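Hi X.,

You mentioned you wanted examples for the new student's onboarding notes, showing what a folding record looks like when two proteins sit in one file. Here is a clean example. The first protein comes first, with its sequence line followed by its structure tokens.
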Amino acid sequence: MTLKKTEIYRTSAGVDQENEIVEAIFNAVYNQRISPGTKLGETALGEIFKVSRERVRRALFLLSNKGIVDLHSNKGAFISSPSEKDSREVFQAREIIEAGIVRQLAAKNFESKLEILRSHLKEEDQARSDWDRPKLVRLSGEFHIILAEATNNSLLVETLRELVTRTSLIVALLGDNISTWCPDHEHELILSAIEKGDPDLAEKLLLEHLKKIRRGLSLTPKVSRNSLALQEILIQDTSNE
């Protein structure tokens, strides 16, 4: 069947609307602006993004497939509250994937993202000095994603972005302090090993880095509430894109 031009437009617009909701919630989780367990009402989201509840449901379904949202029958949608099993599996997946990334980068002439990463590390240091936790959370995750981007493998980047975002949920729920997310100078050591062309050292440092973050997690979930209304959280993240 051939779609009319207007039908093609509506189909594309609908997908864009769903993606806008997905990206706004994704970014709010990534930046730890929204707490695990937060209810995502269909009516509220529809009003915020000026879309139908059907579009909202599709967006929430996409987020549930990524492990960012939990859907409960007769209760609705909530930002995921990762379990200990979820935490273990996310970190195991990251160890396998990221070990391969740093080995690949260390084994080849790695220059494409070097200047960007060096500048990025300076921003991390400044955020740490300023005790700017929200900024450090964002920058810490971005470091790993930039490494993935240097492989020029878009599927790898997308997969790692989802895992880093789920890590953000885990740290928001179980992390005790700022060092849980990013121990001092470990990114610098990993990057130096890659620059030196030492894949064994790069992998060793990367795995130690992820294990240290995981060891810093508490066994007791924190009880936290959003200080802002849902609209303020999502609209601010959308405007910062």
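Then the second protein repeats the pattern, sequence line and then tokens:
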Amino acid sequence: MPALQRQRKNSVGRQALKGGAAVIPNPQIPLRILYEDPYLLAVDKAPGLPCHPLRSGESQTLANAVVARFPQQAHLNPAREAGLVHRLDNDTSGVILFARDAETLQKARALSQGGQMRKIYLARVEGRLQGRGFIDFPIAHHPKSSKKMIVAKNPAQAKKWAARDAETRYQALRLEASVTLLRVEIKVGSRHQIRVHLAALGHPLLGDKLYGAKQTASRLYLHASEIILPHPRSGKKLRIRSPAPF
């Protein structure tokens, strides 16, 4: 597929509202720690759990659980993000990073946005997809639905929709009767990138009704299984894994 050369922009994703009170602690939400040091915290996000609140008083998010265990996270800016370095879609599970101070947060976000943080996922898709491949369709907000993204398949569409560059690499790990387990890797990442890219190939994620999945599933079959990055303070290679749930 021909790459369209366009300037990268940061992922919009699920944006926090500016201002307001700090995140409300919620110790009732389970919190599984995958990695911890004085500067970084990696936790295992459950499927269906938002990363952070959007409104004052909201308490059923991962950030609320993090603040309950680590109260100092509530004082980091931007408001309501509790030091969140990057995001996962609500229905995606797996490893996600929080910084524990403002300087580390700035450096870690620069690594993520600069493509120096490798993000590896496991995905189950409908149909049989063999070998490995590379998808580089630019991605834009869907012109008719605020809930969806859309791929631009030619330069005219990319310009019309102000699409962002996006690159997704995949490798088939296991073929089943009507489903394929994939290893998927992205670096920068845009909202719904893996979901919309694989759907554009005709292989939507199992359970992803928004992007055309037809088979019934108990969850969205996308899991952030591994993050690899230079530590934002020491520069040493850091690899953090989350056990596969499927």
